[in-house]
């Protein structure tokens, strides 16, 4: 049975997720922990639950989602997985991090690249990977059908969508990605976004002002 733990870190109020199953193998998605107390909160949970961290994954590589990459890599000895299209996004973070108040940001190199056609195996659990560019050029989401869970990063939020005014973003591409890769999931799928509360596919299909049935912005 897949379990999910969410932490909200850094001034951007970014959601970091840990997914794990009965084997206690775990994947950390988008570690936004920057301050020492945030790192301690993450590591204390992992220790308390007796988890074995096997994967470090970025849905995409904007600053708020990668602040804890170096910490997780060093502490748990895991590889960093990203989509290949996110390489320039990740590499650019060190140049602008001080401007956002993150002078202590530590740069990291990706170790492995995720293809949207593969599966991500965590313990006994296989997650489906979907390619959803638009907010960033190599954005990925991760879906587990049996539990109806989708780790959505910054694609779809409760009542909103990811911003597309950053380098590599494209509004129409994001709308197409959401409709073809997220809105084809069952309506009761729980969407766990990169910021804010969870929502469901059905709710956003109906009410989201950008991509829902009643949208006037498409």
Automatic annotation (TrEMBL):
<dbReference type="InterPro" id="IPR036866">
    <property type="entry name" value="RibonucZ/Hydroxyglut_hydro"/>
</dbReference>
<keyword id="KW-0862">Zinc</keyword>
<keyword id="KW-0378">Hydrolase</keyword>
<dbReference type="InterPro" id="IPR001279">
    <property type="entry name" value="Metallo-B-lactamas"/>
</dbReference>
<feature type="domain" description="Metallo-beta-lactamase">
    <location>
        <begin position="13"/>
        <end position="195"/>
    </location>
</feature>
<dbReference type="GO" id="GO:0046872">
    <property type="term" value="F:metal ion binding"/>
</dbReference>
<dbReference type="Pfam" id="PF00753">
    <property type="entry name" value="Lactamase_B"/>
</dbReference>
<dbReference type="GO" id="GO:0016787">
    <property type="term" value="F:hydrolase activity"/>
</dbReference>
<dbReference type="InterPro" id="IPR051453">
    <property type="entry name" value="MBL_Glyoxalase_II"/>
</dbReference>
<protein>
    <submittedName>
        <fullName>Glyoxylase, beta-lactamase superfamily II</fullName>
    </submittedName>
</protein>
<keyword id="KW-0479">Metal-binding</keyword>
């Amino acid at each position: 049975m897949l379990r999910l733990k969410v932490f909200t870190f850094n001034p951007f109020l970014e959601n970091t997720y840990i997914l794990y199953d009965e084997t206690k193998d775990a994947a950390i998605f988008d570690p936004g922990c920057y301050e020492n107390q945030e790192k301690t909160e993450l590591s204390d949970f992992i220790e308390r639950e007796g988890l074995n961290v096997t994967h470090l994954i970025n849905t995409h590589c904007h600053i708020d989602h990668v602040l804890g990459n170096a910490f997780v890599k060093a502490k748990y000895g895991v590889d960093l997985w990203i989509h290949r299209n996110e390489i320039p996004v990740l590499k650019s973070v060190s140049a602008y991090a001080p401007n956002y108040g993150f002078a202590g940001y530590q740069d990291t190199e990706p170790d492995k690249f995720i293809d949207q056609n593969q599966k991500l195996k965590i313990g006994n659990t296989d997650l489906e990977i979907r390619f959803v560019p638009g907010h960033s050029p190599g954005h990925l989401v991760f879906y587990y059908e049996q539990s109806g869970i989708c780790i959505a990063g910054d694609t779809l939020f409760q009542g909103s969508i990811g911003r597309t005014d950053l380098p590599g973003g494209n509004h129409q591409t994001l709308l197409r990605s959401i409709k073809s890769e997220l809105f084809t999931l069952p309506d009761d799928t729980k969407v766990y976004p990169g910021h804010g509360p969870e929502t469901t596919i059905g709710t956003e299909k109906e009410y989201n002002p950008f991509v829902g049935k009643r949208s006037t912005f498409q």
